[in-house]
Amino acid sequence: MIKVLVIEDSALMRKYLKEILSPARGFETYTARNGQDGLEQLRVINPDVITLDINMPVMDGMTCLSHIMTENPKPVIMVSSLTEAGAAVTLEAMNLGAVDYLAKPGGTVSLNLKDVEDQIIAKVKAASKARIRRSSGLSQRLRQQRENDVAKAKTAAPSRPTTISRVAAGAKASDATGLVLIGVSTGGPGTLEDILPLLPASFPWPVLVCQHMPGSFTGVFAQRMNGICALTVQEVSKPTQIQAGNIYIAKGDADMVLVNRPTGLHATSVPSDKSLWHPSVDRMVASALEHVKAHNLIGVQLTGMGYDGAEHMARIKQGGGKTIAESEASCVVFGMPKELIERGGASIVLPSESIAEQLLKWV
User: Fold this and answer.
1) Secondary structure of the chain in the HEC alphabet?
2) Residue 238 phi, psi dihedral angles, 5° rounding
3) Which residue spans of the chain are classified as CATH 3.40.50.2300?
4) CATH code of the domain occupying 2-128
5) Given phi > 0 = left and psi -120 to 50 = alpha, else beta, which region is 319?
6) 266 is an active site residue
7) Residue 155: what pLDDT?
8) Among the options 80, 136, 139, 185, which is catalytic?
9) What is the CA radius of gyration of the chain?
10) Is 5 in contact with 14 (CB distance < 8 Å)?
């Protein structure tokens, strides 16, 4: 049995979550009315996983989370509304050490939880085995240095951007330059903060990122990363020309693919297909392989449950490109990287804090 503590001020939400996380499904579930009540029960129950609402009276979720992570760290899943404000607070919670989040499909008091009960069960099971990040480790220690460096880089005169040349008619790829393709899911926001801010403004290859995340979250996430990265970070919500000096975040609830235009390669957002996860890592990488030679691609498979990206990142290695799988030691959930390793698709296996250095060596 996985022991779960649900900290939620809505009696209806507590009832729904307890019904979903039932003994018949392998859960022993307890409930608390607010953060203070939750902290008191935490000391007695010692749960394997905590689901934590953000907006509560007496003690809110963020205050409660800070106590949990400093006094008795546990895998915490934040329960958030699908709003920009909810996204911003949820991403801050991930920075404090929460391992994942559940987006309420129907607002503050969601009557549609049963529509996503399979996702809830999968996330809680994954969290029970997750590695707890202590307030984002490296990213927190380097935050002040990043802010100073980013401010200098973004006020300096920009160098002329390097575009990815258009593929000639009938050709399969371009040799103009390369792309870094990153796939990530559970635990991704904190892990990406260990990597992307360490890439300098002079990094010569564009970086494309598929982070499994709702559409209302990815724009806020891109803005947050733009504030701490020397490279410019933007969400791809329309056809966007690929240029060096930029990191492109796929828009949530859709997929990001590469397409040819007369002026060069563009990233564009397209409706999601029938895949299990979105934005789809496999779809992004497959489209890149259609237009850029494998030896000009670097695939990076980071923390997350499932296997999205493993098949096509393995194709990068098979075609002469390079790939990195995040090591189990730093993964919040060792699912996606493990799949790549087991398919023989990883050129190298590294902890998250070593990945930026490896990218700099390769490019």
Assistant:
1) CEEEEEECCCHHHHHHHHHHCCHHHCEEEEEECCHHHHHHHHHHHCCCEEEEECCCCCCCHHHHHHHHHHHCCCCEEEEEECCHHHHHHHHHHHHHCCCEEEEECCCCCCCCHHHHHHHHHHHHHHHHCCCCCCCCCHHHHCHHHHHHHHHHHHHCCCCCCCECCCCCCCCCCECCCCEEEEEECCCHHHHHHCCHHHCCCCCCCCEEEEECCCHHHHHHHHHHHHCCCCCEEEEECCCEECECCEEEEECCCEEEEEEEECCEEEEEEEECCCCCCCCCHHHHHHHHHHHECHHHEEEEECCECCCCCHHHHHHHHHCCCEEEEECCCCCCCECHHHHHHHCCCCCEEECHHHHHHHHHHHC
2) -150, 170
3) 2-128
4) 3.40.50.2300
5) alpha
6) no
7) 54
8) 185
9) 21
10) no
The closest of 302, 179, 197, 325 to 243, measured between CA atoms, is 179
pLDDT at 154 over 90: no
What span, in angstroms and rounded, lies between the C-alpha atoms of 68 and 76?
9
Identify the CA nearest to 309 among candidates 319, 324, 295. Answer: 324
Q: What is the reported pLDDT for 340?
A: 98
- pLDDT tens, residue by residue, 324-360: 999 999 999 999 999 999 999 999 999 999 999 999 9
pLDDT digits (tens, 9 = 90+) for 262-310: 999 999 999 999 888 999 999 999 999 999 999 999 999 999 999 999 9
Better-scored residue on pLDDT, 115 or 282: 282
CA atoms within 13 A on the CB side of 55: 13
Confirm whether 308 is a catalytic residue: yes
Q: Could you say which of 53, 194, 212, 278 is catalytic?
A: 212
| CATH 2.170.120.30 assigned to 138-362 | no
Confidence check: pLDDT of 174 > 50:
no
9, 110, 308, 312: the catalytic one is 308
Encoded tokens for 287: 């489209």
- Residues forming CATH 3.40.50.180 domain(s) in the chain: 138-362
Question: Residue 291 catalytic?
Answer: no
Q: How many residues would you count in the chain?
A: 363
